[in-house]
Amino acid sequence: MSESPLIIALDYPSLDAALCMADQLDPARCRLKVGKELYTRSGPAVLEALHGRGFEVFLDLKFHDIPNTVAGAVQAAAEQGVWMVNVHASGGRKMMEAAAERLEKNGLATHLIAVTVLTSLQDSDLQEVGLSDNLAGQVERLARLTQQSGLQGVVCSAQEAAHLKTVCGDRFLKVTPGIRPSFAAVNDQQRIMTPNEAMQAGSTHLVIGRPVTQAVDPMEALAAIEAELA
Ligand code: C5P
């Protein structure tokens, strides 16, 4: 259990590599994110192994399908004990409501959040798939829809967090990747913020990968991020 806002992304192609990193981290000081590559390779075994080590897990599979299918997938994730799971808000109100209702009906406390617009997309990409609104407008529209559908929050960039705080309130979760501590390399991230800037902007949780996982001493990197936040 951790009250920290830090979620470390375990972006590894094997269970062994992921656990090797997890074993260098402290479940009292961070949560872990498992994404599509690791989960597709390792399956539920990775969740069991991380839970067994005391970590809370964000299962980042971004479900997007018909309501019944997504509700079943979200239920399956929750029954494996994950702390957080996500869907694509563009799957629509009925899909999100079905997923939220399924958790509630089964007394499952897993946090359910949604991706609004992938940050890899630009205005021109939205137009190409037939969306006439600009990016900021589409993010706001889908964040509102997410909240109305009974979900607890969104994945968003730190740049979007401040506005979404005024639109959806403080308690609506804003889980933010694209974070670079002042000591870290930028890598391939485009628009970055430091942990402190992102929290000031209204993020409630920070997803951080390589600045910790590629550090010579991951716990030292984690401690340096905690110090930046203090
Ligand atoms: O290593 P890094 O800190 O860039 O990792 C960030 C994590 O957040 C990765 O798992 C990446 O897939 C994810 N992510 C992101 N940007 C988004 C959404 C997710 O970097 N817009």
Automatic annotation (TrEMBL):
Pathway(s) served: Pyrimidine metabolism; UMP biosynthesis via de novo pathway; UMP from orotate: step 2/2
Subunit structure: Homodimer.
Pfam families tied to this protein: OMPdecase
Binding site for substrate: 11, 33, 60-69, 119, 180, 189, 209-210
Keyword presence, ATP-binding: no
Annotated Gene Ontology cellular component terms: cytosol
PANTHER family in the record: OROTIDINE 5'-PHOSPHATE DECARBOXYLASE
Annotated ranges, domain Orotidine 5'-phosphate decarboxylase: 5-225
Reactions mediated catalytically: orotidine 5'-phosphate + H(+) = UMP + CO2
SUPFAM superfamilies membership: Ribulose-phoshate binding barrel
Species of origin: Vreelandella populi
Family recorded in the similarity comment: Belongs to the OMP decarboxylase family. Type 1 subfamily.
PROSITE patterns listed in its UniProt record: OMPDECASE (PS00156)
Function field: Catalyzes the decarboxylation of orotidine 5'-monophosphate (OMP) to uridine 5'-monophosphate (UMP).
Keyword entries, A-Z: Decarboxylase, Lyase, Pyrimidine biosynthesis
Catalytic residues (positions): 60, 62, 65
Keyword field contains Lyase: yes
One Gene Ontology term of the molecular function aspect: orotidine-5'-phosphate decarboxylase activity
GO BP annotations listed: 'de novo' pyrimidine nucleobase biosynthetic process; 'de novo' UMP biosynthetic process
Protein name as it appears in the record: Orotidine 5'-phosphate decarboxylase
EC number of the protein: 4.1.1.23
